[in-house]
Amino acid sequence: MQNHSNSSGAANQNLTAFAIRESVFAGVIAFGLFFFFIGLETTQNIRNELIIVPHWVKLAFVVILVMVVRFAMITVVRPYLDSQKAAKAASPQVAREPGFVKRNFTLMMIIALFLYPIICVWLAGVQGSLKYVDNFGIQILIYVMLAWGLNIVVGLAGLLDLGYVAFYAVGAYSYALLSQQFGFSFWLLLPLAGILSAFWGVILGFPVLRLKGDYLAIVTLAFGEIIRLVLMNWREVTNGVAGISGVAKASIFGIWSFDVAAPNNFAKAFDLPMSSAYYKIFLFYVILLLCLLTAFVTIRLRRMPVGRAWEALREDEIACRSLGINTTNTKLTAFAIGAMFGGFAGSFFAARQGFVSPESFVFLESAIILAIVVLGGMGSLVGIAVAAIVMIGGTELLREMEFLKHIFGKVSRLSSTAC
Predict the structure, then answer these.
(1) Whole-prediction pTM value?
(2) pLDDT digits over 1-25, tens only?
(3) Which of 67, 88, 145, 320 qualifies as a cystine partner to 27, CB 3.0-4.6 A?
């Protein structure tokens, strides 16, 4: 018993000594990181001279806080979590039925999304809901659909695609050009844009059949840039960098239109005040249904042989071939189906904006979509949706914060004064 108490006391002393060393090390790192950010401040005096104002108290507070938190993590939090994990492992596992929320979580989220525009109109009015439905609803759902489409290529098949924005551009320009030249409706051009994008996905898939890893990423990146340069320089067709304006709006199956001058205008038909919010609400439900279609097709494909083949290809291509799986068809179907959903999103984007230009399809868009897929977890539809809400919704939320406008406005005025 005495030996046990001596060993536990020695372990506690070792843990305390280790915690002190780690906290001192963390404090040194914090001092180096925050010395120039918090410890020193550059400002202007009354003679318009640049001076340095030290803030040693603030710096010391931050360093001590980091040391205390690191010490507490090692001595209190980590042992508590380890004891909880050990107790959970020792206790008998009892199978519990999932609760009501867990069983019906997906259905509840879908119902909440369908009610979202109604709640926005109820709280902010018809015109006031425009910002929330468009910026926080449609914008996020477009990236959710794009990320779910790229998830088929990257998350399921394991093919690193850095040029996914090219299919987005093909869908947008297909809708814009065909609607202007031939007068086709949105509901006809939506599947047509997906088919054309899938065709370009197959065209991209053939040259990269033997490539993987960094080489595949470089080729797909080049493909995305080639499409953008073609759109910029083929002025006779795409109007170059000026883009295509006056793209036709979507209608409710040709029954009601959202053009102000149309005799079958939606607002006129129901004696409503004229507002562009009705069109945005309609587009919200369209992109929501497209997202649900993308999720449904993805889930069904994962359970089919082609989905199993994608996952086998992602894990080990050589083993995939040894099992008799045709890797050529597997890669081409992944590129084609992923590109098809990108084309759907592109045609919707053109109908929403009413204007398309090459500047909307730069490499940064591909990087954002890939970041959403990686952040949410490759292969996880729910995780990707949450990542899109955080990245795109967070950006829009920061844009609406007034105090940030005041801060950066003040900084810009000080910079202009200094110059």
Answers:
(1) 0.76
(2) 455 455 566 667 788 888 888 899 9
(3) 67
